[in-house]
Design a protein that fits this description.
By secondary structure, the protein is mainly α. It folds into two domains: about 160 residues, no CATH class; about 80 residues, N-utilizing Substance Protein B Homolog, Chain A. The protein contains 15 helices and no strands. Helix 1 runs parallel beside helix 11, helix 8 runs antiparallel to helix 10 and helix 12 packs across helix 13. The longest helix is centred in the first third of the chain and has 41 residues. The chain starts with a helix and ends in an 8-residue tail after the last helix. The mean pLDDT is about 95.
């Protein structure tokens, strides 16, 4: 479920904390990294459960409308297409999702306003009105509605982001990635699938957890040596103008380059150059690319960097 890109970003944040003395030991950094990764998996399940909560709340509102002393014709005969959504019913019956949320105590019970406001936003959405007005009912259409909800409403929904940040400081940064993974999971759901249909595991590859631990450990253990090497290849630069995050990114990239001979150099470099575009200055990706190229050339010449194949 978690990607190598996300793992690299999380490693980067721990290296930053270590180099700014926010984490005082390698052991503490490793524990924080592991916790952060596993909380991403919690968020994956919590957000997946959200559409079920929205549907359940819609059912409650329909029942309350019928119980009024003077219900309107619309309240007496509501359009039930959304609450009868087959895809949401399939998600509601998924036992791995239910068991994980129960085990980790993941619930929206403390945030009813988020569910209420999301349902109101859904009702106001043009794609929802078109869905409700269409007399055709199909599993494909039901699934597409839910995917639209996650694509168009969740990522930038401020009440949701505030609620998530209140629950866990790591979650807001992970929302975009987690939603993308949830949508991938939804696309794989099939009509009539078993309730025991498993969800994707936390790690997409068996060695991903080892990858994260080893890159972080090497970056922290060798950070001083890597920074000296970086200083050597930036001596013609004004030190004050080199963004600290650029140094953090290069330290982390060098740890991966040195630790994993089976990962091609260009793969590692491209990953950290892309990350720099989002986490450092506008010119950082070009700067980092140039410095790391020179460092790699030196390490190759000194037989300190070898790759398999």
């Amino acid at each position: 479920m978690v990607s190598r890109r996300l793992l690299r970003i999380k490693i980067l944040k721990e290296v930053y904390s270590f180099l700014t003395a926010q984490n005082t030991s390698c052991e503490a950094a490793n524990k924080t990294l592991s916790y952060s990764i596993r909380k991403t998996y919690d968020l994956y399940h919590l957000l997946m459960q959200l559409v079920v909560e929205i549907s359940d709340y819609a059912v409650q509102q329909i029942e309350l409308g019928k119980q009024k002393n003077f219900p309107t014709p619309q309240e007496l005969n509501p359009n039930t297409k959304f609450i009868d959504n087959e895809f949401i019913a399939l998600l509601r019956s998924n036992l791995p999702l239910k068991r994980y949320c129960e085990k980790q105590r993941l619930t929206w019970g403390a945030n009813p306003e988020v569910v209420k406001k999301l349902l109101a936003s859904l009702y106001a959405a043009e794609f929802f009105r078109q869905y409700m007005d269409d007399p055709v009912r199909s599993f494909v259409e039901d699934k597409y509605l839910v995917i639209q909800l996650y694509c168009d409403l969740l990522e930038d929904f401020e009440p949701l982001l505030v609620a998530l940040e209140d629950q866990n400081i790591y979650w807001v940064d992970d929302v975009e990635f987690v939603i993308s993974q949830i949508i991938k999971t939804f696309r794989q759901f099939r009509q009539g699938q078993e309730a025991e249909t498993p969800l994707p595991p936390l790690f997409s590859k068996q060695d991903d957890e080892i990858f994260a631990e080893r890159v972080l450990s090497r970056a922290l253990t060798n950070s001083a040596a890597y920074r000296n090497l970086i200083d050597k290849h930036t001596k013609n630069w004004d030190v004050e103008r080199v963004a600290f995050m650029d140094t953090v990114i290069m330290v982390t990239a060098m740890a991966e380059l040195m630790e994993f001979p089976d990962i091609p150099i260009n793969v590692s470099l491209n990953e950290y150059i892309e990350i720099a575009k989002y986490y450092s200055t506008p010119n950082s990706s070009v700067f980092i690319n140039g410095v790391l190229d020179r460092i790699v050339d030196e390490l190759k010449q000194e037989k300190m960097l070898t790759k398999e194949g």
